């Protein structure tokens, strides 16, 4: 046998012995290690719910989710938070369909459009899966219940606040998140009804932002240039109010133009403290999420549930900020 063969044989033998040693050692560890029992490794939940948000990457919906998770923890519910990262109607509807296909115990979602959401909600309910609408109702669907803001009333409150703060004299531009989504439609309608009999209040323009910062800023800028008579704005989503404030500050007219916004996003609070935004509509997203989980459990367990529960809505101005939590937006 050559020297090269002897060396190769020796190395191979050593490698074999080391391998065997490791196998014996780790085999012993596996046999003697105390593994958890299967039952203790898998958490048992009473129910499995899905909360489908309009927009996952959204501070407002994270607060809804936070409330829902607090209730889910209390009642041993497995909760999934799902939906499009950024507002997308088609993805929103697909998420509801996928949740139903997974045969979850309950689905909580918005009813953004009667035309598109009601048929799908009816289809899900027909399969025996209860649906609760949160934040935005699909009143013409077979959903079991709704919990959230009275969006018409919130717009009405905004209109009354504007009348009070401007002493009934203002040329108003409205920037709304959507011309087609139920909650945005109701907010504009409520606002218009609140100011309709005020002779000194004139609605000059109503524009759509598509719940986009860029578009909201573009619309505000167009209004400022095309309608110099406008001296008041109402933004029906928090992004609208924030972007209106930025544009108004760009024109250095924060002392001449009244702005009322929506929600208490930190940026909104900043502009209220600076005096650029004079007032905002405050919602209760945490309570919506928490209450939705409790309502769903009661529905499944056959208990009586009110078909509509409106969470608190109010107006906040600078003097109210210490008592106002940092809400989100939508």
Number of domains: 2
**Fraction of helical residues:** 40-55%
Low-confidence stretches: 14-41, 326-330
Radius of gyration: 28 Å
Tell me what the CATH architecture of the largest domain is.
Answer: 3-Layer(aba) Sandwich
Strand content: 15-25%
Gap between N and C termini: 82 Å
Supply the helix-strand structural class.
alpha/beta
Largest sheet: 6 strands, parallel
Q: Trace the largest sheet across and list its strands.
A: 2-1-3-4-5-11
Q: Can you offer a commentary on this structure?
A:
The protein is α/β, with parallel strands linked by helices and 330 residues long. It folds into 2 domains: 47-149 and 285-312, 3-Layer(aba) Sandwich (Rossmann fold); 151-282, Rossmann fold (3-Layer(aba) Sandwich). The chain is built from 11 helices and 12 strands. The strands form 2 sheets. A 6-stranded parallel beta sheet has the order 2-1-3-4-5-11, sandwiched between helices. It is elongated and about 60 Å long. The relative contact order is 0.13. Mean pLDDT is 88; it is low at 14-41 and 326-330.
Q: Keywords, please?
A:
330 residues, alpha/beta, Rossmann fold, 48% helix, disordered C terminus
Brief account:
The chain is of the alpha/beta class and 330 residues long. 48% of the residues lie in helices and 18% in strands. It has 11 helices and 12 strands.
């Amino acid at each position: 046998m050559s020297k090269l063969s002897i060396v190769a044989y020796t190395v191979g033998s050593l490698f074999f012995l080391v391998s065997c040693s490791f196998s014996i050692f780790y085999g012993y560890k596996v046999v003697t290690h105390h593994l958890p029992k299967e039952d203790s490794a898998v958490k048992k939940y009473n129910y499995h719910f899905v909360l489908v948000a309009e927009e996952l990457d959204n501070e407002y919906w994270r607060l809804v989710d936070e409330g829902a998770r607090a209730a889910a923890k209390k009642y041993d519910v497995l909760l999934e938070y799902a939906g499009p990262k950024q507002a997308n109607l088609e993805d929103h509807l697909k998420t509801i369909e996928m949740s139903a296909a997974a045969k979850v115990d309950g689905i909580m979602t918005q009813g953004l459009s009667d035309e598109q959401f009601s048929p799908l909600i009816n289809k899900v309910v027909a399969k025996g899966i209860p649906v609760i609408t949160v934040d935005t109702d699909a009143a013409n669907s077979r959903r079991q219940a709704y919990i959230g803001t009275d969006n018409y009333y919130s717009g009405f409150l905004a209109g009354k606040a504007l009348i009070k703060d401007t002493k009934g004299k203002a040329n108003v531009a409205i920037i709304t998140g959507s011309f087609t989504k139920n909650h945005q439609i109701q907010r504009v309608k409520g606002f218009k009804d609140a100011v309709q009999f005020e002779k000194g209040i004139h609605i000059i323009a109503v524009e759509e932002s598509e719940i986009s910062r860029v578009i909201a800023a573009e619309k505000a800028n167009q209004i400022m240039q095309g309608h110099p008579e406008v001296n008041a704005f109402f933004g029906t989503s928090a992004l609208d109010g924030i972007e209106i404030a930025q544009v108004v500050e760009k024109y250095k007219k924060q002392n001449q133009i009244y702005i009322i916004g929506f929600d208490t996003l930190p940026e909104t609070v900043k502009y209220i403290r600076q005096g650029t935004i004079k007032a905002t509509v405050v919602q209760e997203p945490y309570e919506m999420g928490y209450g939705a989980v409790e309502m769903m459990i009661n529905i499944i367990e056959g208990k009586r549930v009110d078909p509509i529960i409106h969470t608190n809505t109010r107006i906040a101005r600078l003097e109210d900020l210490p008592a106002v939590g940092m809400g989100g937006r939508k």
